Amino acid sequence: MFNINMKEKDFKVLLINCNTMMDVLLPVGLSLISACLKEKGFEVKLFDTTFYKISKETGDEIRAKTLQVRKTNPEEFGLMYKDTDLFEDLKEMIEEYSPDIIGLSCIECTYELGIKMLKSIRHYNIPLIVGGVYATFAPEYIIAEDCVDMVCVGEGEYALVELCTKIVEEQDITSIKNIWIKKDGKIFRNGIREPVNIDELPFQDWSIFDPKRFYKPMGGKISMTGTFEMNRGCPYNCGFCSDYGLNKLYANNGGYYREKSIKRLIDEMKKKKEEYNLQFAYLVAESFLTTKRERIIEFIKSYKEVDIPFWIEARPESINEENVSLLESAGCEGISIGIESGNLNLRRELLDRNMTDETIIKTFKILERSSLRVSANNIIGFPTETREQIFETIELNRQMNAPGVMVSLYNPYKGTALREYCEEEGLIQKGSLAGDYRSETVLNMPQLSREELLGLQRTFPLYVRFPKSEWPRISKCEGNGQEAEILYKELSREYTEKFL
């Protein structure tokens, strides 16, 4: 397979971040893996695809075009595309750095590009390992690729350190937990190790990233932003979310959901704020307020030591007057609330989100009286969903009156309960890849075509915000053609002036 003599040289790791274009929010996973490897004395370098022109539009451009966010100009902050070839640059880095192992991190919608990159460097005969959430749930497909030697299933921090250590010490690597490996014509499918103690992990290593990665558009402006892991996983099992699969994967091994101690979190945030002159913090917690009250209060009291604006995500049922007041006192600038669908039966039976319309509306009435910047996250295009049900979501948003209206397109990602449903119903083949939820859907259902969903996505905010007397005009914008585009531009200008 591969033979490395480490007695006369340091061990070098090259990580490849196969990212969606211009999505600059720092990935916690890679930052922690790099920190763990460096802590054990390994060298680490990163090849990042973020600033290469690999698609027609960025996620932020798509969201601005569909009236979900304000348009920003990243070029003002030096966020520009590289004018060199991605594949040639990767080869040049490999030849200059001479890594001993290469690790690809990708998600489902960047997997094809990631594999294309690995195929382009296979001739260097360097061990290649693939990790990330898609690798966790599709290892059998990935390990079958000729350009892949190993797959990391589940968490990678300790698994990668153990792998590199054993290679250096010339030990057997076929029994490392969380690693699938090909050797001598066989595939060794190792089980899952216990979840890592996230309080024992080193602070993230951001030194591997281009300094421009810190410039993140938020709320129509661009700020120096850091990403911080507060919790790992989620105690809920929403049908469209991969936490369902992670909870299932770790069910017999301690469970996947963990909370970082507030002291550890605050210490890291203080250090990173000072090192990188941070202006904004994005807290990674699937449901920030779903925890003990004492923990929230401890965070609020301690956060004055950090003292920069931050953004969180929360579920409607976790919002109350006291929690909102606590968030305001700590300097929380914004909050995203997951609504997903306005149809009660669809929420309960398909999405496993057991909350009433009354609870959702009450949540937004409370938030309306606050100083927080609020956005409602919606998803359209679920399997079995009809146009009428999408308009129930629109009607619920009209009642909520949230300042920010976000709408994503449903994609059946590996590791989710709904992916299993879509495969069983023949809506997607088992080996097929899902797309980018911001711009595409791979489902083309009999009751709702892909084209209809794209039309509803771009007009969704218009239906929510404009009076119903305008709905006939808005409906004309759902289609393609010159007349639809002219009318959409006209309504978009009006919408932007009034609501963005």
UniProtKB/TrEMBL annotation:
One of the record's GO molecular function terms: cobalamin binding
Protein name, as recorded: Oxidoreductase
InterPro entries documented for this protein: BchE-like, Cobalamin-bd, Cobalamin-bd_sf, Elp3/MiaA/NifB-like_rSAM, Methyltransferase_Class_B, rSAM, rSAM_horseshoe, rSAM_sf
Residue span, B12-binding domain: 12-174
Pfam families xref list: B12-binding, Radical_SAM
Domain Radical SAM core per the UniProt entry, residue ranges: 220-457
Cofactors demanded by this protein: [4Fe-4S] cluster
Entry keyword set: Iron, Iron-sulfur, Metal-binding, S-adenosyl-L-methionine
Organism superkingdom: Bacteria
